[in-house]
Specification:
Helix content is 77%, strand content 0%. The protein is mainly α. It has a single domain, classed as MFS general substrate transporter like domains (Growth Hormone, Chain: A). The longest helix is centred in the first third of the chain and has 29 residues.
């Protein structure tokens, strides 16, 4: 008797083998330490609600005038300029785990202090310390990925981290917009709790990846600053960071001038996370096949288009479209930026190299609110068209730098051989 196959049809749905292969291409082969960092980043970003709503908190709850709000946010930027160079030093000197966990706990404590600040002096001081602690962990996290993940997989790994960050961010923005309309104090407490969870998780679940003492050798920030391609790349990131930070410094204020609520701003910024969640798995694993400078230049150009759309916006839906387009550029920029730094940095100086690129982001964040709020006060259209022009400048500059980066990081160079 012939046996009848009762397992059901083999067509009409996704084949399990094909699904497993798709997941393996996008997420397979990465070490356990990376996945702990991925999970911690997701938790951290689920609670990251204070910084995106800080300008609304200062103006709406604390009654700080618009012009002074720009200056207070600039104080956060000053702290940010110092934050990642300090974090990079700590990551190379004391290890990735200590720097990451210490930074997260310090940030949580600062958030609680800021949320309970009443006088302007304490408010400004807390904002300065917030800037220092906000990204203190980041060089250690980026160095940890470079330590643990093979060079060929780093672009994919950094893209997956971006996906986790934006998955949490999309939820945090919608929830934060709702909570901000009821009680801002909840934002500070939830953000602090998420920081603590991330720090504790890494401390107990991630092994130290810093090279052994006999392998570290000499080196300092002077070594990094003598690396001309790296310094030039950091300058390009400053330009893009000025534009990127407008989403937090001036976009909520621009939307409020059109009578949009904080909830509407939260929904618009939630689009950022949704676009990353939808698009990064489709393209993230493919980026390693392309020249990094061309990917970056494309990302900068797409961001320019997004800011041009914002220049014509007066309704929430159009602002959402502008954010969606800019986010497509962000996906390219963020995934490849970290991979460029990982290619250039010797293993013993990965913390400091990431500290320098973090300083570039912090410098852009310092400039952004001062320039952005003043341009916004003159004309919102001028603000967004200026941002579009800056993105095009960054794209052209990156293409000019591309030959130097290719000479420094030849295809297939062994991990950690950067001069």
């Amino acid at each position: 008797m012939t046996r009848t196959d009762t397992s059901g049809p083999t067509t009409g749905g996704p084949r399990p083998g094909r699904l497993r292969a798709s997941i393996r291409v996008r997420a397979g082969g990465l070490p356990g330490a990376f996945w702990v960092l991925w999970g911690g980043s997701l938790v951290n970003r689920l609670g990251a609600m204070v910084n995106p709503f800080l300008s609304l908190y200062l103006t709406g709850v604390r009654g700080v005038p618009l012009g002074e709000t720009g200056l207070v946010l600039a104080v956060v930027g000053i702290g940010s300029v110092l934050s990642q160079p300090l974090g990079g030093f700590l990551a190379d000197r004391f290890g990735r785990r200590a720097a990451l966990t210490g930074g997260m706990l310090a940030n949580g404590a600062t958030l609680l202090a800021l949320g309970h600040a009443r006088s302007l002096t304490v408010l400004v001081s807390s904002c300065f310390v917030l800037g220092i602690t906000l990204d203190l962990f980041r060089p250690a996290a980026q160095a940890l990925v470079a330590d643990a993940v093979p060079a060929a997989d780093r672009t994919r790994a950094y893209g997956l981290l971006l996906w986790a960050v934006n998955l949490g961010f999309s939820v945090a923005m919608v929830l934060g917009g709702y909570l901000a309309s009821h009680d801002y104090q909840l934002l500070f407490w939830l953000d602090a709790a998420a920081c603590t969870c991330f720090g504790v998780l890494v401390w107990f679940a991630v092994p130290e990846t810093r090279p052994a003492a006999r392998e570290r050798g000499a080196g300092s920030y002077l070594t990094v600053l003598r690396d001309r391609p790296m310094v030039a790349f950091a300058g390009i990131i400053v330009v893009y960071a000025v534009v990127f930070q407008q989403a937090f410094a001036t976009l909520p204020l621009a939307m409020r001038s059109t009578s949009a609520s904080s909830g509407a701003y939260g929904m618009v910024m939630g689009v950022n996370g949704l676009v990353v969640i939808a698009m990064q798995p489709l393209i993230g694993h493919r980026l390693a096949a392309f020249d990094k400078s061309r990917v970056l230049a494309t990302g900068f150009t797409v961001a320019a288009v997004g800011n041009a759309v914002a220049a014509a916006a007066s309704a929430t839906a159009v602002y959402g479209l502008a954010v969606a387009v800019s986010t497509l550029g962000e996906i390219l920029v963020f995934a490849v930026t970290a991979a460029v730094v990982a290619d250039l940095a010797p293993a013993r100086l990965r913390g400091r190299y990431n500290g320098l690129i973090g300083m570039a982001w912090g410098t852009g964040f310092l400039i952004a609110p001062v320039v952005g709020t003043r341009l916004l006060a003159v004309d919102p259209t001028a603000l967004w068209l200026t941002c579009a022009a800056l993105c095009l400048v960054a794209a052209v500059s990156q293409l000019s730098l591309a030959p130097a980066l290719r000479r420094r990081t030849p295809e297939g160079a062994p991990e950690g051989t950067a001069p």
